Design the sequence.
DNA sequence: ACCTAAGCGAGACGGTACGTCTCGTCTTGCG
DNA sequence: CGCAAGACGAGACGTACCGTCTCGCTTAGGT
């Protein structure tokens, strides 16, 4: 906690930016989105409000910066089985959202995006990027013939991501493995090439 | 617009409640969620703030009431084809969200739920209810053998609803028909019983 | 505490009036003037607000009624010595203000009179009446030749009453006897007929 | 009327304080004590409410500040005759209370002091100071042998001030000269050293 | 014996003010 | 020129009372 941080002359002090982001994350974690205010962040960071506004135009931008600062180490496995890959991806994502500030931050960002157009734009761009990224899992499966050729990989990713988002937004990121796997199964078998298979006899065929 | 609305005795005046909900909806539409405040609603409804607080504990509850007041005439068709039914459902939902205040209200409600636990609880309950409801479409298809026996109808509804929610929250409710139909197709064929079918050659191979 | 008090037909129920005045006094005593509100009185008296407003036009009138309801047993002695009579009067008044709700009530009434013209009018009338009344002490002394003929008895009473009021309003009703007696002495010897007397060598010349 | 008043850095802006006090005085004058509210003052001063609360803890403190801001130029003459001095003092005081906002402000302050202990304390201190101050008139007369040695000058001032206060509080500051002079006469001759005099043949002996 | 008139408790109504919070802007003085 | 600091105008928050209104009830007095 940088105490007595001062100006480093006529230029931007990166320590301040860092302290602000850290404080923002801490405030978000401790008091939730409703307690997240520029004032609170400034107080916590021992920074002046103008210093925050100088670097980020407002709450939304700060929130976004906090989210992007999170090092995202979601697993993008390549087991050779799309269903397994997507399951692991969701598990990893839910785990990250559950055990790190990332979930709270992302929730806040989505909320903010509903009233702030800048945040909305940023979120849309971010989401599109993630869809393409996650879509590569599907595209890979498609390349090895696991998925039918005509399938839109990005849209499959959209379905998976939407499932994850809504679980986050409705407080269901502690969903059990079986349920997650089943959901993934519905999607994967919907795009699968293995037509003869009779997948997902959920509760086990004898 | 009831002018000079007064007390009707020692009990709630439905006119006031109605005027407040109407005003809330109007404020939300005109100024968006960020401009939605109890003060603004009171002003618009020509009601005292305490009158609002008497009936709704806060912003979240009012928002929820406004949403529930919306007469929801989403189409739950029964065409005998699940894919068609779900497509029509999504189309109808997107249309309602796009052309009536419902979309803006629901966006606001989801946002509110990220910081207000009452709203979160209410939203969770509401969402669960809708999943069951929409799930009946799937259950019906299951009953007529269109969907495999082991499939969890509610969870299929969850996938469909999640797709819709995220589209709303990321400003994509003007999604084109083909894309929607494709997404539905992925899910439906994933739970379908018609194993021999080669579904969804989306862009049609000649 | 009259429970379940009801209407007694098409006329005022004295029990209600009584209960209201009693409640008003109690509220004033317990919470002071700042906590004295029609709502609080109604609550305490288990009376409807309109019942209060039906009989008293507002806070001021109620306050006045409460004050007048106090049985005032201020001593108007007739010792044959004006100074003694006035001293006893002040002592009695201070004692009453100190040991009964009367003081708090009167303070409140004076305060109310500064913003409410009805209370002001009522207070003025009341004060004028008291001046005349107390003036009789002086007039009696005048009749027996103790006070000079030209002296305005009412005005003397005014001086004495003013002294008392200001002591009440500035929290000095616990003034010690000697001081009170001295003040009275100044006034009385100012109107006295005994010109040869050298009165009130307070701190005693031997 | 300072328009577009802004912050002048991390310290109090005297313009704001001044504007607030001025507005407070104006509100008090125009709407009386009953119309005197922090909101009204803020509105009139084009100031935010927190700016007021930052500098004054509440209504009472603001009222007191407004009163103290009044430049008090009450006449303290030294004619060599105590009766004349006190008469002129009262005349000057009544005139000030009548023709400037001072009277309304002081009335309000006394009223406030009946429900607010801070105001009560401040008023008590102020009043004590004034008694000492006015007492100097008497002490001076005492020094030149006009007043008996044992007399408590402060207490005489108390009598005079009480007379004035109560006249203010009961709307009698337009009292005629003769009456005022007579009242002063009663007090002065009560403490006078001139024992042979037959003062105050008020309505004239032929 | 019925009817009507008024009082009763209750509590909702449209308002205003309270004192606190955060917003985003502004200006200082130090480094 | 960046920085911490914090005051500024603005306005929303949720609560307390204001004085008015209407309800459903009681009861008495006039018919």
Sequence:
């Amino acid at each position: 906690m940088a105490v007595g941080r001062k100006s480093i002359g006529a230029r931007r002090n990166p320590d301040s930016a860092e302290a602000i982001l850290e404080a923002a994350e801490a405030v978000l974690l401790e008091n939730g989105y409703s307690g997240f205010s520029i004032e609170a962040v400034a107080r916590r960071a021992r920074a002046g409000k103008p210093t925050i506004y100088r670097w980020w135009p407002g709450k939304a931008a700060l929130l976004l910066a906090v989210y992007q600062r999170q090092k995202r180490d979601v697993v993008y496995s390549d087991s050779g089985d799309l269903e397994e890959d997507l399951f692991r991806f969701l598990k990893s994502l839910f785990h990250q959202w559950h055990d790190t500030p990332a979930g709270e931050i992302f929730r806040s960002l989505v909320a903010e995006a509903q009233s702030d157009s800048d945040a909305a734009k940023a979120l849309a761009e971010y989401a599109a990027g993630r869809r393409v990224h996650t879509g590569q899992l599907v595209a890979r499966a498609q390349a090895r013939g696991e998925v039918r050729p005509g399938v839109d990989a990005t849209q499959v990713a959209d379905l998976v991501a939407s499932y994850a988002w809504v679980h986050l937004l409705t407080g269901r990121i502690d969903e059990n493995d079986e349920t997650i796997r089943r959901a993934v199964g519905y999607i994967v078998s919907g795009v699968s090439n293995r037509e003869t298979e009779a997948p997902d006899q959920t509760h086990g065929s004898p």
